[in-house]
Design a protein that fits this description.
By secondary structure, this protein is mainly α. It has one domain. Helices cover 80% and strands 0% of the residues. It contains 5 helices and no strands. Helix 3 (19-89) packs antiparallel against helix 5 (106-115).
Length: 123
């Protein structure tokens, strides 16, 4: 077991330092500790801001996806209305009807929205 006085013994290189030099070193170490604490606080604030931005991004994605579903539904309804009005006006050829039906790939569009392929950006 070491004696009590050996715990307070300075290493050889520190024994040659004056009291003023030791206080400068201690002061510099305290300044570094304050700077590190300040940087830690700033990093925590940045992490909070990033989390908030991610929450906003998720909310905007959900809103965009919902708007896209509404637009896709409206396009289907408009196309159905167009086809019905053309049928009411008179005879329509099967080719023309097929062309109207193929104008918007609704099933593919809806599937892309549901899967998240449309509206979600890679993080």
């Amino acid at each position: 077991m070491q004696s009590e006085s050996s715990y307070h013994t300075l290493p050889p290189y520190a024994q040659s330092l004056t009291t003023d030099q030791m206080s400068l070193i201690a002061s510099a170490l305290l300044d570094m500790q304050r700077a590190l604490n300040h940087q830690t606080i700033l990093i925590a604030q940045l992490q909070d801001e990033l989390a908030e931005l991610r929450r906003h991004n998720d909310w905007y994605h959900a809103q965009f996806a919902q708007m896209f579903r509404v637009v896709a539904r409206d396009v289907r309804e408009l196309r159905a209305t167009l086809i019905c009005s053309l049928l009411e006006e008179g005879p329509i050829t099967a080719d023309h009807l097929m062309t109207l039906l193929r104008q918007t790939p609704d099933n593919e569009l809806v599937e892309k929205v549901r899967s998240g392929a449309i509206g979600r950006q890679a993080n």
